[in-house]
Amino acid sequence: MVKVAPSVNKLRKKQDSKTERKGDLAPNPEMWAALNDGQLLNEILDDFYEQVFTDEKLAHFFKDSTQQRAKEKQYLFLKGIFTGEKCYFGERPRNAHHWMVISNELFDYREKLIEETLRKHHLAEPLIKQWIAVDEIYRKQIVKTEAFGKKVGGIEIPAEGYDVDTLTVGSMCDGCEAELAAGSSITYHVRTGKVFCKNCTPEDAVL
Ligand code: HEM
Question: Which ligand 1 atom is the nearest neighbour of the CA of 69?
Fold first, then answer.
């Protein structure tokens, strides 16, 4: 057996253990069987994100993401809930959506879209209800009227705004794609990490 760091052993132990969640978040073997051990979940999410990425109300939230990435995150998140396996290591929904201003109406709108997609893929009605009940658990964490900072280790990280820095290695402006030499002063967006040259620094950047 290869010797590994204690942190790796800890992670492996966590992955091997099962969740003890109760209620709507309890493992749901019936759901996972109906999802054909994930194969149907994959197809459903392909279809769902195909619609989301061209939806006039939802697409703009995903402008810094890709369909593949969004789908894979959601797949592991839901697999973790439905099977009870600890396979999702992404952000918790509160942090993942911290910068998105999502109203109850928009949440309902997305919910309707997923519901219709589940029906289109012939998931049984009681299972659709159970899926929606899972989504509903996260409504409180996702719906908000103002963006809030993400909490990492109890510290709030800002959601919006810019800061300045000096590049230690050469890079490229995320606005005009001009080359930025090492040593140049740039502004960067605190959440997305996008880097801007002087000309492309947005006017509303508060520095
Ligand atoms: C109107 C409602 C929603 C919108 C606009 C929305 C939008 C987004 C966006 C833009 C991302 C980032 C994708 C990326 O980084 O590639 C994301 C990530 C995610 N969302 Fe949502 N979402 C919504 C509702 C939900 C709900 C109801 C759930 C859970 C049941 C959920 C679970 C997740 C998860 C697990 C991630 C991945 C987090 C990570 O990056 O680690 N979302 N969402």
Answer: 16
Is the CB of residue 25 less than 8 Å from the CB of residue 81?
Answer: yes
Q: Whose CA is nearest to atom 27 of ligand 1?
A: 135
Q: Which residues pair with 172 in a beta bridge?
A: 179
Q: What is the pLDDT of residues 72-129, one digit of tens each?
A: 999 999 999 999 999 999 999 999 999 999 999 999 999 999 999 999 999 999 999 9
Distance of CA 60 to the CA centre of its chain: 14
Other beta carbons within 10 Å of 125: 9
88 lines ligand 1 (CB under 6 A): no
Is residue 81 classed exposed, middle or buried when 0-12, 13-18 and 19+ CB atoms within 10 A define those classes?
buried
- Give start and end residues of each alpha helix (H) in the chain: 6-16, 29-34, 39-52, 67-83, 93-96, 104-120, 125-137, 139-142
Domain boundaries, the chain: 21-152, 160-200
Check if CATH label 1.10.490.10 holds for domain 21-152. yes
Residue 106 near residue 57, CB atoms below 8 Å: yes
